[in-house]
Amino acid sequence: MDTRTTPCGLGAANPAQQSDWTISFFLTYGSEAILPADIIWKSPRVDAYQEGEADEAQQLELDSVEEGRIKALTQSARYLQGVRRYHDRNVQRRSFNIGDPVLRRIQDETGLHKLNSRWEGPFIVSKVTRPISYRITDADGNEVPNSWNIEHLRRFYP
Length: 158
Known about the structure:
Elements: H1 20-29, H2 36-40, H3 44-47, H4 51-90, E1 101-105, E2 119-130, E3 133-137, E4 148-149, E5 153-155
Antiparallel strand pairs: 1-2, 1-5, 2-3, 3-4
């Protein structure tokens, strides 16, 4: 009897054939599940059940829980590193200088038609308060209240 296929096991003995549900159940509870249908219809796994081997197999599974969790954590970290690398490669750095014309995103879009522009302006950058935060003035020279994050500003090309 394969040590991975125990009476409390579910699915194939080959880890590559196991479903995501089986793996997540194993990582959460430390053992695999057995279906009630396997007990009712006497599956070969239930018939081949022997107490001593089952205890050894269960101890092996419990020992491999931590290994499985570490493997899942490593895979998650590898995935997040790839996502971060993709994002960093494709992000475009932006900055504005004093005197640059910009458009400001409309904050309250209620009542706007779907074809209306989501930007208003042009405004002029009057002060850089932080690397990604700017003070702006309108065309008449009146300062707009609050600093505006670069996410809400777009360069204006007259």
